[in-house]
């Protein structure tokens, strides 16, 4: 691949630079909605794909080639850096990540190791290096945010209400802070490793932090996120912060040293801008709309693009990840429409 062929539209939008059209990629763009991915999963478990750089690179690259999107995101799981620090995690079909040794005390926090990703996760670096040779679009690295990771560590698996997590946060503030500090260090080290390996942007997924009120976020979580994004800022690599159901936190997020805020469909881009947010914005189609008739989907997307394109620094995405029932054809058509509609 010649460097001339490299499409950096996504990176330009992250930096609020002029772009020839609105860049688009989709969270969870590699996954079970793809027949090819389902075939690969018949041969390999999730973690086996992760640990095989050639296969992992293929899975990461597939949606770029298939959909024509403007960025690739490393195929991995937010649990990937937790195994090397001493967390026993199983990916259970139909349930998600299940933790065999959940956090209940300060001793549980203290037995978590620090991370040395070059030694414990060499395959991540190898996959990124391979992808940088193969891709003609930027590669996004990612990690889970400490609150979202802690929700699995404390609940023992997925939760609908996060009572145990927030209960731990309220009742054991010292232990909570120790856990946040530990997970912040892991997140920073893991993302810096991805950047050193060649990731050109990084996204921090805080999928479940919307369950926390603004005041509690400010007290128990914001200092940790400030620490993470401050450390990443030294690299000069664009950073993205994603959460679901986080409209009430956007004013606080605006004060974090992060470049791009990834928003969901519960707030419009016009409303985000009305809050005085000048950062780049990513989002925010409701993934369920991928099942809507094309005309309805097109009208919805047109409205989102019209709002997003009013200011520099806009990236089209979903408000959460692609789900198994979505179709490749719809995503192909949608990507093409976004490019055509916004071409300067």
Verbal overview:
- The protein is an alpha/beta fold and 344 residues long.
- It has one domain (3-342): TIM Barrel (Alpha-Beta Barrel), CATH 3.20.20.210.
- It is built from 16 helices and nine strands.
- A seven-stranded parallel β-sheet has the order 1-4-5-6-7-8-9.
- It is globular, with a radius of gyration of 19 Å.
Q: What descriptive keywords fit this protein?
A:
344 residues; lyase; two-stranded antiparallel sheet; decarboxylase; porphyrin biosynthesis; Uroporphyrinogen decarboxylase; alpha/beta; 16 helices; Uroporphyrinogen_deCO2ase_HemE
Give the topology, please:
Elements: H1 9-14, H2 35-43, H3 46-50, H4 53-67, E1 72-73, E2 89-92, E3 96-99, H5 106-110, H6 117-120, H7 122-134, E4 139-144, H8 146-155, H9 163-171, H10 173-197, E5 201-206, H11 214-220, H12 222-233, E6 239-243, H13 250-253, E7 260-262, H14 269-274, E8 280-285, H15 294-308, E9 314-318, H16 328-342
Parallel strand pairs: 1-4, 4-5, 5-6, 6-7, 7-8, 8-9
Antiparallel strand pairs: 2-3
Helix pairs in contact: 4-7, 7-10, 8-9, 8-10, 9-10, 10-12, 15-16
Subcellular location: Cytoplasm
Protein name: Uroporphyrinogen decarboxylase
Keywords: Cytoplasm, Decarboxylase, Lyase, Porphyrin biosynthesis
């Amino acid at each position: 691949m010649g460097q001339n062929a490299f499409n950096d539209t996504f990176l330009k939008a992250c930096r609020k630079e002029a772009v020839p059209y609105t860049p688009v990629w989709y969270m969870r763009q590699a996954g079970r909605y793809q027949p090819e991915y389902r075939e690969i999963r018949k041969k390999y478990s999730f973690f086996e794909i992760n640990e095989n750089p050639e296969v992992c690179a293929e899975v990461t690259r597939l949606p770029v080639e298939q959909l024509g999107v403007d960025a690739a995101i490393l195929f991995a799981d937010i649990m990937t850096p937790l195994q090397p620090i001493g967390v026993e995690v199983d990916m259970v079909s139909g349930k998600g990540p299940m933790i065999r040794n959940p956090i209940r005390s300060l001793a549980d926090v203290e037995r978590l190791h620090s991370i040395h990703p070059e030694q414990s996760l060499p395959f991540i670096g190898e996959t990124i290096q391979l992808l940088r040779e193969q891709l003609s679009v930027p590669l996004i690295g990612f990690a889970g945010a400490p609150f979202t990771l802690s929700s699995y560590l404390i609940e023992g698996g997925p939760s609908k209400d996060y009572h145990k997590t927030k209960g731990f946060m309220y009742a054991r503030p010292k232990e909570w802070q120790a856990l946040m500090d530990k997970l912040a260090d892991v997140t920073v080290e893991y993302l810096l490793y991805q950047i050193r390996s060649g990731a050109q942007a990084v996204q921090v997924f805080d999928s479940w932090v919307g369950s926390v009120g603004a005041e509690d976020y400010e007290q128990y979580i914001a200092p940790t996120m400030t620490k993470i994004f401050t450390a990443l800022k030294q690299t000069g690599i664009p950073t993205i912060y994603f959460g679901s159901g986080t409209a009430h936190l956007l004013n606080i997020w605006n004060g974090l040293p992060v470049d791009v805020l990834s928003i969901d469909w519960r707030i419009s881009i016009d409303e985000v801008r009305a809050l005085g947010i000048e950062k780049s914005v990513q989002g925010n189609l409701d993934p369920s709309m991928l099942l809507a008739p094309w005309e309805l989907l097109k009208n919805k997307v047109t409205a989102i693009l019209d709002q997003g394109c009013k200011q520099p620094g806009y990236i089209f995405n979903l408000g959460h990840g692609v789900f198994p029932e979505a179709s490749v054809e719809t995503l192909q058509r949608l990507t093409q429409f976004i490019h055509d509609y916004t071409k300067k």
